[in-house]
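Thread: "does anyone have the structure for this chain?"

Original post by V.I.:
We have the sequence but no experimental structure in hand. Need at least a predicted one for the grant figures.
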Amino acid sequence: MHDPEVTDCLLDVLDPEVGVSVVHLGLVYRAMRSPGRIEVDLTLTTRACPLGGMLVEEVRTCLRRRFNDRSTIAVRLVWSPLWGPERITEVGWSQLGGRGTETGARHA
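Reply from O.Q.:
Generated one for you, tokens below.
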């Protein structure tokens, strides 16, 4: 479930380690907007990621800038389903330089 305006906003949030948007990495599991509320469920490539808190704040900041109304913004880190490289979009693979294709990590 993705609201196109919320997803469009999140295209500007880049994973700091690889410089690819959280959308194209497949880290956004849900992005919804209703009157007075924006909700995003986000995962990380690993629970041990030290930059998770920073990424959550970047998502909040991006949404606050784009939707400068008084909406409540809720960003949750979720762990189910587990993230895997098959969630990366074609654009994401392109931005990664095709990395992963030679190891079989890429799924069509």
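V.I.: this helps a lot. The chain has three helices and three strands.
O.Q.: and Residues 85 and 105 are 6 Å apart (CA to CA).
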